[in-house]
Design brief:
Largest sheet: 3 strands, mixed
Number of helices: 4
Structural class: alpha+beta
Strand order of the largest sheet: 1-2-3
Number of strands: 3
Radius of gyration: 22 Å
Order of helices and strands: EHHEEHH
Number of domains: 2
């Protein structure tokens, strides 16, 4: 494992990240610990479960509430489409 101080790694962080992506073990020394750089897979399907600590049932219930709310806003004509211009969302 190649270990670096934060100062050593900072200037060439992109290089070290690429080395980690190629399978080289890279570690940064942080106090008395070493923190390893490793690629991880991100699964967007379980984002709410991980980010907010929801159970599957709670996530499903939240999805249903959000869909119901969107349907009601569409019927009332109060749902605004985001066009990329934040000023367009103001009343």
């Amino acid at each position: 494992m190649k270990t670096l101080t934060i100062t050593e790694g900072r200037g060439r962080l992109g290089y070290w990240l690429n080395q980690a992506l190629r399978g080289q073990d890279i570690g940064f020394i942080c106090g008395d610990k070493i923190v390893a750089l490793r690629p991880v897979e991100v699964h967007s399907g379980d984002y709410a479960l991980q980010e907010y600590g929801l159970t599957e049932a709670e996530a499903k219930a939240a999805e249903c509430r959000i869909k119901k709310s969107l349907t009601a806003e569409r019927k009332r004509g109060t749902l605004k489409t985001f066009t990329g211009d934040i000023r367009g969302l103001r009343d």
